[in-house]
Specification:
The protein has about 160 residues and is mostly helical. It is built from 7 helices and 2 strands, in the order H-H-H-H-H-H-E-E-H. The longest helix has 28 residues. The protein is elongated and about 50 Å long.
């Protein structure tokens, strides 16, 4: 399993905890504008994305030929009233899904990690690419959290 960095994948939870450390409930729910996500909504989106990659990985392993699903991230975050929940619950869900997926990925052979499916863009993606892409995706949202925190201070 040398090709997939499980440590980087698992470390995304710790990085989220560091990014939000010291923020009050009011700060994690603060929105610069109604259409812009709060810190809590960003974290909620990452849970949603975890669900989606969980399905994609399992669908590839099951050798189905259906196109891997996309999702409307703004509609998902808004539709579930993400900013009305508790950040601790959202973080617990993120951590649990991350741990569960890492157990699965840790059992996969290099051959299984190389299995592919076709994403919603028509691109062929491997399980390895999905895992690496998720870790990279989290990094982008960590930057977004920092921008939200900076914007909140400027107000």
């Amino acid at each position: 399993m040398s090709e997939v960095n499980l440590e980087a994948f698992l470390n995304t939870h710790g990085q989220l905890l560091t990014a939000i450390d010291g923020l009050s409930e009011e700060q994690v729910k603060w929105k610069q504008a109604p259409e812009v996500w709060s810190v809590q909504e960003v974290v909620s989106h990452l849970v949603d994305h975890s669900f989606v990659i969980s399905f994609r990985i399992r669908d590839i392993l099951a050798a189905t030929t259906a196109q891997l699903p996309a999702f409307n991230q703004d509609a998902w975050v808004g539709g579930q009233h993400s900013n009305e929940g508790q950040l601790s619950d959202i973080l617990d869900a993120f951590h649990a899904i991350l741990e569960y997926n890492s157990l699965l990925v840790g059992r996969l052979s290099e051959e299984e990690l190389a299995k592919t499916g076709v994403n919603f863009k028509g691109e062929t993606v491997s399980i390895k690419t999905i895992i690496q892409g998720f870790s990279k995706h989290v990094q982008g949202h960590l930057s977004q959290i920092e921008r939200i925190k900076e914007a909140a201070v400027a107000v």
